[in-house]
Amino acid sequence: MIVTVTLNPAIDVSYRVPNFQMDQGHRVENGNKTPGGKALNVSRVLKEIGSAPLCTGFLGGQSGVWIQKQLDEQEIEHSFVTIKEETRTCLAMIDEKSGTQTELMEIGPVVKNEEIEKFKVSFQHLLKEATMVVASGSLPSGVPVSFYQEIGALTREANIPLLLDTSGEPLKFGIEGKPFLIKPNQTELSQYTGKVESTLEEMIEAAKAICSQGVQYVLLSLGAEGAVLIGEDVIWQAKVPRITAVSPVGSGDSMVAGMAYALQKKYDLDECLRWACACGLANALESTTGMVQTEIVQQYLPEIKVTAL
């Protein structure tokens, strides 16, 4: 069982506007409303491609109740810790004329110390049944910036691989927890190193330096250019076919889902990278964040060229 951890989930609402104008009123079709948060996106993709994830994290208020109801309808198992404050809502305005997307993201609830401790107890219980953990996204207020380091220590003690997808200070501390794999994009890698890696060689060297700290693999996503999987003694590069994307939002989460699925199946690393990229591509062809169609994933698998560097 793959346990996914979303510590700062949200209700994601997106509106498509034919020609968005600032300081104007717009009548729009009903918004697309989905359970949001990076690891919840991972969970939906895992469910679609044939895995059985279990979601955990913090949920509060009527927003939290709505998210759990949606997961029930999607037949995705969950075990969240209930908090006193309301789970956040995030809005996206998609301008169909310009192709731009403007997002308004609530900071979210403040999680209390006793709620954090309750999560730790629950998480350790879930680890008894887990074969892998995926932790993704930002941390809510009240949760220490080092919390992913603590999750790394707990998963390592239980001998469960951790796939971590976050950024900024949580990533810095998370790396100290020695996760099995991290998935930065080029911007997030530069934020971590404090300098701009402009060439592939520089990015690979930065990733290898991270691996020397105890992280086994770095899955570096490069958008339309594909991805690179780097370990201390292995480098695989994936090049993907050109597509006309509907929405690339959530493709990174879908990559993590594909990687987790393939690792659980014990596929070779090059095939794991191929699955990660195929899921990322399939998500970019959907209007809903964190959604793929299995037949589209299968269609793109043979079109992704993976080579050793």
UniProtKB/TrEMBL annotation:
UniProt-listed Enzyme Commission number(s): 2.7.1.144
The Carbohydrate kinase PfkB domain, residue ranges: 11-289
Pathway annotation from the record: Carbohydrate metabolism; D-tagatose 6-phosphate degradation; D-glyceraldehyde 3-phosphate and glycerone phosphate from D-tagatose 6-phosphate: step 1/2
InterPro entries linked to this entry: 1-PFruKinase, Carboh/pur_kinase_PfkB_CS, PfkB_dom, Ribokinase-like, Tagatose/fructose_Pkinase
Alphabetical GO biological process terms: carbohydrate catabolic process; D-tagatose 6-phosphate catabolic process; lactose metabolic process; small molecule metabolic process
Domain of life the protein comes from: Bacteria
Pfam families: PfkB
Gene Ontology terms, MF aspect: 1-phosphofructokinase activity; ATP binding; tagatose-6-phosphate kinase activity
Purpose: Catalyzes the ATP-dependent phosphorylation of fructose-l-phosphate to fructose-l,6-bisphosphate.
PANTHER family according to UniProt: 1-PHOSPHOFRUCTOKINASE (PTHR46566:SF5), 1-PHOSPHOFRUCTOKINASE-RELATED (PTHR46566)
Family: Belongs to the carbohydrate kinase PfkB family. LacC subfamily. Belongs to the carbohydrate kinase pfkB family.
Protein name (record): Tagatose-6-phosphate kinase
Species, as recorded: Lederbergia lenta
Lineage, highest ranks first: Bacteria, Bacillati, Bacillota, Bacilli, Bacillales
Gene: lacC
